[in-house]
Amino acid sequence: GLSYPSTGSTGDGYRFAKAVSHKVTRLTPALVPFNIKEDFIKEFPNVRLNIMGDLTPFDDDLKKKAISLMEKTKDNEFVWNLGINYSGQDELVMAVNKIISEKIDIVDREVISNHLYTAKQPPLDFLIRTSGEMRVSNFMLWQLAYSELYFTEVAWPDFDEEALYDAILAY
Length: 171
Hints:
Blueprint: E1 6-7, H1 13-31, H2 36-43, E2 47-52, H3 60-72, E3 78-83, H4 88-101, H5 109-113, E4 126-129, E5 148-151, H6 161-170
Parallel strand pairs: 1-3, 2-3, 4-5
């Protein structure tokens, strides 16, 4: 339901990481102020941040802040899944590699689900795809298997309360 909003994707996360890793290291201090944790907690006091994606191209300070923020908010009621350098295909590969490394003999849907970035979360009910795109763009491929899909011409920056209301009515 709406208790688990998810945003963000890079499409091909590996290609993205290779292409911008040198730029990301220089940009992250400007993108993430020192007080990111305090600002997030103040702005979203009941939200648990769950970052989905490969953080390896980012500098160590940003990774530490992201992990610390996820840890600090882990018991909050609502979950925001934020895709940063995220790829649904890469997420599935990561899950399979974790399963292999744990030497799990019997693999079923639950085992796979428990090794995804969204472990212990319910499946997605509803996906809103903005900007007139008629594809899922490598986003949460496992999680949206039975989701209702809603496509809108409204671009993400312009997607406001009215556009959300229209989407919910369609759902």
